[in-house]
Design goal:
The protein has ten helices and five strands. The protein is 49% helix and 12% strand. Helix 3 packs parallel to helix 4 and helix 8 (182-189) packs across helix 9 (193-207). The N and C termini lie far apart (36 Å).
Length: 225
């Protein structure tokens, strides 16, 4: 089945480029387009997209609210932010709300299809400059690296008891945080893609999250990564 893409973009030129890219790929189908946040929220239930291509700088409401609404839909979808905003706050707010990827507009139109494919295969496409800054921010927040112990499953989480994740789940989450697809992770860990998905579901349940971005953010906040 084709991947249904909802485009939320108020700039006519970018809307045209993204629409053409989706229409020209046989594996993608255009679920619709919206130029405002409220129109996008209305279309989430009506169009039931697999992927939402979202600009944060909408004329009526904050694009982050569209991400939150997308995460509340009964039919799960992936949100790929495509924005001019490259500041930490917009990026972190988007990831915390549930975005699975974050790309800057100036580098996107030529690679939008490959980014959507990467997203659907379990990857988290993030512009390199943003990824580096996020990692730097997390390292600073976590402080100096602590020496590993032989009982990593029982390590303390912010001084509040043992980690809820097993060693295997923590390893998988670290690879996910690097933006690797589930297929690549299965090869690196020597397990099947179905087992990877099963581990991911357990991680989501343990961390009370609903997306890869949320899982990485929450795990980092808890000191698990």
């Amino acid at each position: 089945m084709s991947t249904k893409v909802l485009i939320v973009e108020d700039e006519p030129e970018f809307l045209r480029r993204f629409t053409n890219a989706v229409l020209m790929d046989p594996d993608l189908a255009l679920a619709g387009s919206a130029g405002t946040g409220r129109a996008a929220i209305a279309m989430l239930e009506a169009a039931q997209p697999d992927v939402v291509l979202l600009d944060l700088g909408l004329p009526d409401i904050d694009g982050v609210e569209v991400i939150r609404q997308a995460m509340r839909q009964p039919r799960p979808c992936d949100v790929l932010v495509v924005s001019m905003f490259d500041d930490d706050q917009h990026v972190l707010d988007s990831i915390e709300a549930g975005a699975a990827g974050y790309l800057l507009k100036d580098a996107v139109p030529e690679s939008i299809v490959s980014s959507i494919r990467d997203l659907r295969h379990g990857g988290s496409p993030i512009s390199p400059g943003i990824a580096r800054r996020i990692l730097t921010r997390f390292r600073v927040a976590l402080g100096p690296a602590r020496p590993a112990t032989s009982h990593s499953q029982g390590k303390q989480v912010n001084g509040c008891g043992a980690s809820p994740l097993t060693e295997r789940e923590t390893e998988l989450l670290r690879l996910t945080a690097k933006g690797l697809s589930f297929d690549t992770i299965s090869e690196l860990m020597g397990i099947s893609p179905h087992t990877v998905v099963a581990h991911v579901r357990k991680i989501y349940r343990k961390l009370a999250v609903h997306s890869r971005g949320e899982a990485v953010y929450e795990a980092t906040q808890l000191g698990l990564l």
